[in-house]
Ent-kaurenoic acid oxidase
Amino acid sequence: MGPLILAAAIFGGFMMLRWLLKNVNWWIHERPLGDKQHTLPPGNMGLPIIGNMWSFLLAFKSGRPDSYVESFVKKYGDTGIYKALMFGYPSVIVTTPEGCKKVMMDDEKFEPGWPASTVELMGKKSFISIPYEEHKRLRRLTSASINGMDALSFYLIKIEEIAKSSLDNWSKMGEIEFLTELRRFTFRIIMHIFVGSEGDAVMHNLEKEYTALNLGVRAMQINLPGFAYHKAINARKKLVAVFQSVVDQRRIEMKENIHYRKTRDMIDGLINATDESGNKLDDEQIIDTMLMYLNAGHESSGHTTMWATVYLQQHPEIFQRAKAEQEEIIRNRPPTQTGLTMKEIRQMGYLSKVIDETMRLVTFSLTVFREAKKDTFINGYLVPKGWRALAWFRTIHFDPKIYPNPMEFNPSRWDNFIPKATEFMPFGAGSRLCPGNELAKLEIIVFLHHFLLNYRLERLNPKSPVMYLPHTRPVDNCVARIHKVSEA
């Protein structure tokens, strides 16, 4: 009887452990809701503490990122909303345009809900974490310095200069990591916009620190040596110190009425920005704003530019149509004109569709985090107060009902198609729309203009595996050669 009793005890212990593992998250997060728990979306919260993060990471690292949401659909049906435990928070994943519209645009019921690690690294006074009214104020104060027509027209000159010189240099370098070089290209631009000529002296170190910062944004919040978050925290400290020194110097110059710089930059605009009540931004707001714009104007535009270039080179007929549009713009240019104008940028209709299609396929930011300010219903299911709502852009961008043959790169799908606000969200939506979106698109379109006219891309490892976290990119960073095909 001894062995039988031992076996029974082991089996009983195993079953008890299994029950505990299966139900501990329910006990912590769902049971306190009482009867309201029965109106939660279908789904499961996975293992204690870890939640669904293990299956999420496995899906994205397997090369089949969409299999994560597909597993919910297969098990629970196409409800468009599922409960999960993500990044340490009880959450709902929202996968329909209608549901995302509620999450993204109903500011009375939802507020920013980014993971604590993201808030810490991007800044507690950046756009991603401040309350709605403060967000509106900060957006009003900074939008003219970033996306205003005067600012974009001014930045266009430098963006074009850097694009032309970068392409020419790369064509002479032989083998390069195309993505790495593009990230340096966009970093040069954003630093020039931020701090003007002073950017050249600190460029290399700042880029290195920002790369470490960005790698920690989606990492687990483990502040110990060797972990990505720890490296990111240290990188942020160094970035803040550099920007603080620049802000301090500018304030001294303004106080002493020193105006010797020939070019303006964003940091001057942020220091001088004044709201309707006469209030100005403090140093922390200025620095956090600049760090956030680094992400919009550097990281996302660099990746999107790489993929757009790759897709164009993979589809000769699309390449030729986009190139013909650029050649037509040059032919119609007055003989005395030497550079691009904003009027010409607006004439690049087909190239804009190439960029939109690239952003749809790549979906640089796969989700946005919101927190329910009160109990809210979406698709008939409860999102409890305090739970996170994840607007899952990637699923919408690959929905065959909205985008037939969604895996196909087809800029012409946009010819007679105007998506609803939450059917296409490369920069988010609603009041939290990325404030640097127009600047990012300008960087991409100027680069592609000159690439199409004068260069071609030869990938040396076209079958390189693709990784999807933290952003979609080839594992080899797109090792390639840039070939000049005519005089730039």
Q: What stands out?
A: Residues 87-484 form a domain with the Cytochrome p450 fold (CATH 1.10.630.10). The first strand starts at residue 81 and ends at 86. The chain is about 55% helix and 10% strand. The chain has a mean pLDDT of 86.
